[in-house]
Amino acid sequence: MTESTFDRLEKRLPPPGLNIRKHLFVVVGVFLLGAVGGLLAGRMNTVPAPPAAAGPATPADRFVMLPELTVNLRSTASVKLMKIGVTLTTAPDQNRKLSELEPLLLDEMQQYLRALDENDLEGRIGVETLRAELLRRLRAVADPVPVELVLLRTLILQ
């Protein structure tokens, strides 16, 4: 008598009890390897805590407020005056060094701002360009001291 396909496949399969046991060992082994690997990866990525400073740094230590400037714009512009207030952000330990460079920073800002006209400040793109250009120029002046951001407090055109 000929065997059906089902009978032939049934004979090739291992006994049912052994198959479940193998799968259980594989699943538990993979789980344990994943858990151990996760713990090791977590320990390898930990960054040691920085040494304690003299006092806790507050968020206000990151900001250096420059005085507001009133600047004449280019003589061909229909808008003649611009009032601008700028705040710079830096690392808390660099705040004092950046404050000492304030006269140089103000001079660089005035030189750049006096060359602008109202078309340079049109719309959101104009303001973003102003911010990016000030950041580039102020970073060049305060070179050893990192300037992270330029925040515009006020910007008034008259």
Topology:
Blueprint lengths: L4 H8 L3 H29 L18 E3 L3 E4 L8 E9 L5 H6 L1 H13 L8 H19 L7 E9 L1
Antiparallel strand pairs: 1-3, 2-3, 3-4
Helix pairs in contact: 4-5
Give a verbal description of the structure:
With 158 residues, the protein is of the alpha+beta class. It contains five helices and four strands; from the N terminus they run ααβββαααβ. Strand 2 and strand 3 form a beta hairpin. Helix 4 runs antiparallel to helix 5.
Task: Give me some keywords for this one.
alpha+beta, 4 strands, 158 residues, single chain
Helix vs. strand class: alpha+beta
Name the shape in a single word. Answer: elongated
DSSP strand (E) fraction?
A: 15-25%
Radius of gyration, in Å, reads 33 Å
Q: Could you estimate the helical fraction of the residues in percent?
A: 40-55%
H/E order of the elements?
HHEEEHHHE
Rounded to the nearest angstrom, the distance between the terminal CA atoms is: 105 Å
Output mean pLDDT: 79
Poorly predicted regions are none
Largest sheet: 4 strands, antiparallel
Q: Number of DSSP helices?
A: 5
Number of strands: 4
